[in-house]
Design goal:
- By secondary structure, the chain is an alpha/beta fold.
- The chain has a domain of 164 residues: TIM Barrel (Alpha-Beta Barrel).
- Helices cover 42% and strands 13% of the residues.
- Strand 4 and strand 5 form a beta hairpin.
- It starts with 5 loop residues before the first strand and ends in a 5-residue tail after the last helix.
- The structure holds NADP nicotinamide-adenine-dinucleotide phosphate.
Length: 314
């Protein structure tokens, strides 16, 4: 059975600022993709900007070298962020020409003639919903993309776009994890003075559930902060969360990665985590995530949430 996990390709293709990739990066990408396929993962997440185009390009090379692979997987990518001088972030651009040119570049680098899903990377404050709608409609009609969705958008922003589309938006990709738990705070603090400060647009997950929009979670492992990585800016509760994650993993006979992902997978929004490790062993360590999520008790789920939150629920 296909996994609910998605493999995030942002780490493929070598360092962001390297001008190109070489055979070593091709081998690394191949090993990561093989590890993902071995878990039953069939969906691969890209963006035109990842590695300044190298992530898609190295993946395209793998596709070319592996006949039949394209038919066994689903590819999604994102457009809408323009890089500035030197490769840093420039500005957002969801004009029709940026969307159409962005998809053309993505298809060229990935060496494919269609995307299974196109996501609009971030909300562009200057976007015109009617213009975006007609660009997406053209891509759908041409067969360049088979479905469209968004990333980092609220229910209201999705609603404004949906008014100009003849197909339902398929997905919203958001930062969701034990660390970035504002999506749960916004639920439990709905009638509370702290509710406005959660940083998560209240009602987004409910909107997705009501309209059949898949919720995808980026950085679902929180960059490894609870699973053994020394992050640059540890939070005050990281140590306690990591200890509880380890304790639960030992009790369940599984990995710490499976517990961190299982916490997301237990949520009724049917969240699809987009895992970003490029290390085959760490990808393999995610194998039990769905089983662990399915069996996670309310007590375990709330213990993880409240430890990450650093205080009890109101
Ligand atoms: N829509 C958006 O705006 C957006 C934004 C960011 C990302 N994304 C997508 O989400 C995907 C996942 O993002 P992510 O990579 O931030 O998420 P993640 O899965 O939470 O973290 C993976 C990263 O953490 C590192 N890591 C994990 N455990 C570790 C450990 N124990 N020790 C050392 N390093 C560890 C991995 O390094 P190794 O590679 O060495 O394992 C990798 O760099 C991306 O690939 C991309 O597709 C989307």
């Amino acid at each position: 059975m296909a996994s609910r996990l998605i493999y995030g390709c942002m780490g493929l293709g070598g360092p962001w600022d390297a001008p190109d990739y070489g055979s070593e990066q091709v081998r690394q990408a191949e090993a990561a993709v093989e590890a993902a396929l071995a878990l039953g993962i069939t969906r691969f997440d890209h963006a035109d900007i990842y590695g300044r185009g190298k992530s898609e390009a190295v993946f395209g090379e793998l596709l070319q070298g592996s006949p039949g692979l394209r038919d066994r997987i689903q590819l999604q990518s994102k457009v809408g962020i323009r890089l500035g001088e030197g490769g840093g972030f420039g500005h957002y651009d969801l004009s029709a020409s940026a969307i159409l040119d962005g998809v053309a570049g993505t298809l060229r680098r990935l060496r494919t003639d269609y995307l299974d899903l196109l996501l609009l990377h971030r909300p562009d404050p200057l976007l015109d919903p009617a213009e975006v709608g007609s660009a997406l409609t053209r891509l759908l009609a041409d067969g360049a993309v088979r479905a469209v969705g968004v990333s980092n958008m609220s229910a209201a922003q999705m609603g404004a776009l949906q008014d100009h589309l003849h197909v339902p938006l398929a997905a919203d990709q958001l930062e969701l994890s034990l660390h970035h738990h504002g999506f749960v705070d916004s639920t439990v603090l709905v009638n509370h003075a702290d509710g406005a400060a959660t940083g998560f647009p209240h009602g987004t997950l409910e909107h997705c559930l009501r309209h059949g929009i898949e919720v995808q979670a980026w950085s679902p492992l929180a960059g490894g902060r609870y699973t053994g990585r020394n992050v640059a800016e540890p939070g005050p509760h990281d140590g306690a969360v990591a200890a509880l994650v380890s304790e639960l993993a030992a009790a369940k006979g599984t990995t710490v990665e499976a517990v961190v992902l299982g916490w997301l997978l237990r949520h009724p929004a049917r969240i699809a985590p987009v895992i970003g490790s490029a290390t085959p062993q760490r990808i393999a360590a995610c194998a039990d995530a769905e089983a662990v999520g399915g069996a996670m008790t309310r007590e375990e789920w709330f213990a993880l949430y409240q430890t990450a939150r650093g205080r009890s629920i109101p």
